[in-house]
Amino acid sequence: MFNAFDVSTSGLVAQRTRLNAISSNLANMSTTRNEFGEAEAYRPRYVTFQTDTSLTTSGGGAGVRVASVDLSDEPPNMKYQPGHPDAGPNGYVAYPNVDMTTEFVDALEATRAYEANIGVIEITKDLGAQTLRIIA
Amino acid sequence: MAANIFNSSTLPVLEQVVNFAQARHGVLAGNIANLDTPGYKTRDLSPELFQENLKQAIEESRRPASPGQSAASGATGAASTTNYDAFAKVEDSLKGILRHDGVDVSLEHQIAEISKNHAQHNLAVNLMNSQFRQLRAAISERQV
Predict the structure, then answer these.
(1) What is the mean pLDDT of each run of 10 residues along chain A (136 residues)?
(2) Under DSSP, is residue A48 helix (H, G, I), strand (E, B) or coil?
(3) How many helices (H) and strands (E) does chain B have?
(4) Nearest CA distance, B61 vs chain A (angstrom)
(5) What is the 3-state secondary structure (H, E, C) of B90-137?
(6) ipTM more than 0.85?
(7) Inter-chain residue contact B36 with A49, CB threshold 8 Å
(8) Do A61 and B132 lie within an 8 Å CB cutoff?
């Protein structure tokens, strides 16, 4: 019974991790330098989930966990800005390949999935409370 | 004697319904947690199979009770043990649409199922409570 809480919580943790990655992508959508100050466009992060069989309920339900956070392989957006300090020899600056629409849709989806897990936790709480009412 | 009081009513049946509802709730919670897991397929426990097994168990427990009242005590435990078979079957449902990432979890469908399961659980618990209230009223020799 209480394992259902853990399963839903794993969903919450996973969706929040995804939302954090999306926040990072949006915050860095114009970042042209890496953490060492070198001219390299920020690469968007994408979170991958995996079914977590170490969290199971009596009926066979399973939890979820973050399998990996991967950097995007897509090439950066090249913009012709010869006067820019990070411009290459040909005058092009590499900008991160962050698509704002995609990120916003993903953020909304992650939020809704988070809310769905919260709803399940509410139901789990009520199931527990109702069961305890038998001995009340 | 005390076992007869509890097993002659619908309490063992309601107990199984509550057990099944809790097991199924865990499975549905897992589906919602795995909403965005690539390759995850929806899992479910079959309420139809459970009800079928429960029905059989009820009929079996009633059969020996009719010819002689002395046989009734032997059949009382039947309802509480046989219908656990339904739990063993975690089946993949094909009701949802398979997306390009291999996921077929339909959030609307899962929420509807979990709400129905919730209502069924609470119905069984409330019926159980009313049975215990009646027993208590009988024990304390007063009107309900």
Answers:
(1) 88 94 94 89 93 86 92 92 90 93 95 94 92 81
(2) strand
(3) 7, 2
(4) 24
(5) EEECCCCCCCCCCCCCCHHHHHHHHHHHHHHHHHHHHHHHHHHHHHHH
(6) no
(7) yes
(8) no
Distance CA A30, CA A96 (A): 6
Query: What pTM value is reported for the model?
Result: 0.77
Q: How far apart are CA B56 and CA A59, in angstroms?
A: 21
DSSP state of A83: T
User: CB of A121 within 8 A of CB of B32?
Assistant: no
Separation in Å, CA of B66 to nearest CA in chain A: 31
Query: Is the CB of B121 less than 8 angstroms away from the CB of A127?
Result: yes
d(CA B111, CA B92): 17
Nearest to B18 among A63, A117, A131 (CB): A131
Encode pLDDT of B19-73 as tens digits: 999 999 999 999 999 988 888 888 888 888 888 888 888 888 777 655 544 444 4
- Is B57 within 8 Å of B139 (Cβ atoms)? no
Measured CA to CA in angstroms, residue B85 lies from B7, B55, B56, B94 at distances of: 20, 13, 12, 22
Question: CA dihedral in degrees (B113, B119, B124, B125; nearest 10)?
Answer: 120
Interface of A with B (CB under 8 A): 1, 3-4, 7-8, 10-11, 14-15, 18, 48-51, 56-64, 109-110, 112-113, 116-117, 119-120, 123-124, 126-127, 130-131, 133-134
